[in-house]
Amino acid sequence: MLFSNVIGLSSIKQKLQANVRENRLAHAQLFLGLEGSGKLGLALALTQYIYCSNRSETDSCGECSSCRKISSLTHPDVHFTFPTVVKTSDKEPVSDDYIQEFRKEVLASTFFNTSDWVRVISDNQNKNPNITKKETRNIISKLSLKPYEGEAKTLIIWMPEYLAGQSNALLKLIEEPPQKTYFILVAENSEALLPTITSRTQLVKIPRYTEEETEDYLQTKYGLGSQKAEQIAYLSEGNFRKAISLVESVEDNYSTLFRDWMLACYSNNLKTVATVTDDLHKIGRVQLQIFLVNGLSILRESLLYKTITNYQIKSEKEQVDFIKKFSKTLNAANIEKSYEQINEVIYHIQRNANAKIALFNLSLNLRYNFVRNR
Ligand SMILES: [Zn+2]
Predict the structure, then answer these.
(1) The whole model's pTM is what?
(2) For residue range 124-142, what is the model confidence (pLDDT) as tens digits?
(3) Residues with a beta carbon under 5 angstroms from ion ligand 1
(4) For the domain that residue 359 is a member of, what is the CATH number?
(5) Distance between Cα 44 and ligand 1 center (Å)
């Protein structure tokens, strides 16, 4: 992977690049970042940069033989260790048993998490993944060999949280590494890591992505319109894995449903409100969040349309008329109030509140905002 293919993180990239060029890269690093951050992509980009025979100040060439091997995860001196699942009939597995699957997964996206991975390698979701004792022995013997090409060996450990009891032998290796060996540990949860690991590695904290970065990514990679990209960025909280799954699940912007819901609240007919709330509840928790975030953009555009002369509404064509009409039904203060109330419900639904109750209460509050406006 090229550095330029890793979104954002420019100051971390610059530091790593300088360390490689000046030959002072720490031999054991811990890339720590939440789910859906750029940690694995960055580990791969750094590895490629280390080996590239024709690198520039800011990136590897992407074309030399090392770059090609590393970008397909097939370089003989770059090893991967990751959690696996012990199957009942099986002997203790090692990472190499699943390297084909791992390559496929990484090449598709670097944002997958351990559950995604377990789903790929096992039919049984209840099995706990781990990095086996046999795997640590395997690592030690691999790293004791001379490099096949060039002069350095690298071990990328994805999810060292799963080393559990097997880390002692590995720690010894990190403490007294064979010549020219780099360890890059790519982890999510520092609390699940043994202190002996964190104390022996140089910490590189990978921040979560900003809403702007998420929007950029969604627009570039999936060609989403700015409104949809903004809504998904808002919901995914800097987690690209979540953002990707939302892109795959957003089929509708629910503008008709939103209009029906607002009309029900506006008509002040409790029975209709209850029916529409029931319908909404049926679309499911994730879709409901998408629906509500779309509602937020409608409210925001209504407010801007109401308060700024000649404001150009930023929305899909079908929604523009509705936004214009809608902005007449509420005053600015009540639009803001509704915005806050919807926002709060999204927050609670994300944290597993009872969606049906939250939605019904919200409908009552919104209805009251309309009533007060008369
Ligand atoms: Zn290269």
Answers:
(1) 0.79
(2) 777 889 898 899 999 999 9
(3) 52, 54, 60-61, 64, 67
(4) 1.20.272
(5) 13
CB 50 within 8 A of CB 25: yes
Tell me the three state secondary structure of residue 88: coil
Residue with token string 């004792």: 133
d(C-alpha 161, C-alpha 114), whole Å: 10
Q: Are residues 223 and 194 in the same domain?
A: no
Q: What is the 74 CA–ligand 1 centroid distance (Å)?
A: 14
Nearest to 363 by CA among 374, 353, 355: 355
CATH number reported for the structural domain that contains residue 35 in this entry: 3.40.50.300
Residue 186, φ and ψ in degrees, nearest 5: -115, 105
Q: 190 is in which domain, residue-wise?
A: 3-208
d(CA 348, CA 116): 25
* 3-state DSSP assignment of residue 81: strand
Q: Residue 204 belongs to what H/E stretch? A: strand 202-205
179 & 192 share domain: yes
**279 and 324 co-located in one domain:** yes
Q: What is the pLDDT of residues 45-79, one digit of tens each?
A: 999 999 999 999 999 999 999 999 999 999 999 99
Ligand 1 geometric centre to CA of 61 (Å) = 4
Pair 206, 9: CB distance under 8 Å: yes
Angle, helix 255-267 to helix 317-329, in steps of 10 degrees? 20
From the CA of 203, how far away is ligand 1's center (Å)? 26
Quickly tell me which residue has 């030399």 as its tokens. 64
Residue 138 to residue 211: CA distance in whole angstroms: 41
CA 80 to ligand 1 center in whole angstroms: 20
CA of 154 to the centre of ligand 1 (A): 16
Cα–Cα distance, 211 to 234 (Å, whole number)? 6
pLDDT in tens, 239-284: 999 999 888 776 666 778 888 888 888 888 888 888 888 888 888 8
Whether residues 280 and 234 share a domain: the answer is no
